[in-house]
Design brief:
By secondary structure, the protein is of the alpha/beta class. It contains twelve helices and 19 strands. Helix 2 crosses helix 4 and helix 8 packs parallel to helix 9.
Length: 378
């Protein structure tokens, strides 16, 4: 979205980059100097904007970045970011040449992709670092533990390839102390022993994402992958209060229309809300196409001039309505739809709770047409 278009639209996401730097700094200190922090900025930085949050994370002490797609790595490189960028999933083997060209650090769990990377590295007269992922029980992506040592040995022997890392992902780290995490950890340790027994040294071992970094210190090893907590959001409800996490994102807009509605009259599609009294209704230029879910209809509150007002009627694609009760405001009055740091009661965590989902989905669901405005750039 161009700067001009962003200026025309009163609805915007505000991202406080100082919160990002603060949150990353907490985990850099927690992990200690022997453990690197990889900042995960896939899915457009969890809806916050990949490039700006990546820069802030590096300023906060992260040393590496993580993405899911080749295209996401390409965006970061085109923005001038030179830090190591990890590709967390295998793309089709046909993408191997582009992975090498962008100097990404790919994840490998199949021999076909490993061989494609080797050919691309040799063709480019370079050396390609990669990390091998082990499926220790999540049953999503990764090599079978029974075949992992053989895979590592085969990949390490390929020309143009350096096996820099080996890792796994925990299925239940959102639940501190969950026994399945311990089970996965033991499987991973066994794989490491088998790899070492074959004489292959792998310098970077990593298991912990945000949750395990807090609750499972042994799993930090040489690197942690910092995702949701980097944005000031909880890796699970049981982590509340563990660290001074500061939510970086808020959604704001301005009233576009105010009008009078009489008692018993309905509002919006389906007339799902009927006014209990004569009242003022404000129309806000934000809807489900922007990331305000329709499922929040008649279940949410916004903040205007320091006061809370209920969202009423069905949330539309582009608009929603608010009952101003006894008050009236002029068009142009600012509205906080979802709050950021210091606004937990109507922030992302609260929205996820009302929706019966997770905070990841709330922030990743914010539409591309909503401009991102960055505060506290360095």
């Amino acid at each position: 979205m161009s700067a001009g278009t962003a200026a025309w639209r009163p609805t915007r996401v505000e991202v406080d980059l100082e919160c990002i730097r603060h949150n990353v700094g907490l985990f850099v200190e927690l992990a200690g100097p022997a453990c690197q922090v990889m900042a995960i900025v896939k899915a457009d930085g969890y809806g916050h904007g990949a490039v700006e949050t990546a820069r802030a994370a590096l300023q906060g002490g992260a040393r590496r970045l993580g993405v899911a797609l080749v295209e996401e790595g390409e965006e970061l490189r085109e923005a001038g970011l030179t830090a190591p960028i990890h590709l967390l999933f295998e793309p089709p083997p046909e993408a191997a040449a582009r992975v090498a060209e962008l100097d990404l650090i790919p994840t490998v769990y199949t021999t076909s992709y490993a061989h494609a990377l080797s050919r691309a590295a040799v063709a480019g007269d370079g050396k390609l670092k990669l990390h091998i992922k082990i499926d220790t029980g999540m049953h999503r992506m990764g090599a079978d533990p029974a075949e992992a040592a053989a895979l590592v040995l085969e990949v390490a022997s390929l020309p143009g390839i350096e096996v820099e890392g080996i890792y796994t992902h925990l299925a239940n780290a959102s639940l501190p102390g969950d026994p399945f995490s311990t089970q996965q950890w033991e499987v991973f340790r066994q794989v490491l022993e088998e790899v070492e027994a074959k004489g292959v040294e792998v310098p970077l071992r990593h298991v912990a994402a945000s949750g395990a970094s807090l609750s499972f210190p042994d799993s930090r090893l040489e690197m942690i992958r910092l995702g949701i907590a980097m944005y000031g959001l909880l890796p699970g409800s049981e982590y509340r209060g563990n660290l001074d996490l500061r939510p970086a994102l808020s959604i704001k807009t301005r009233i576009s229309r105010v009008f009078r509605v009489c008692e018993a009259e309905g509002v919006s599609y389906g007339l799902t809300y009927r006014c209990e009294r004569d009242t003022w209704i404000a129309v806000l230029p934000i809807g489900y196409a922007d990331g305000l879910p329709r499922a929040l209809s008649n279940r949410w509150e916004v903040l205007i001039a320091g006061k809370r007002y209920p969202q009423v009627g069905t949330v539309c694609m582009d608009l929603c309505m608010v009952d101003l009760v006894e008050d009236s405001y002029e068009p142009g009055e600012e509205v906080t739809v979802i709050g950021g740091y210091g606004a937990d009661e109507w922030g992302v965590e609260r929205a996820a709770e009302v929706l019966g989902t997770i905070n990841y989905e709330v922030v990743c669901g914010i539409g591309k047409r909503v401009p991102r405005i960055y505060l506290n750039r360095l």
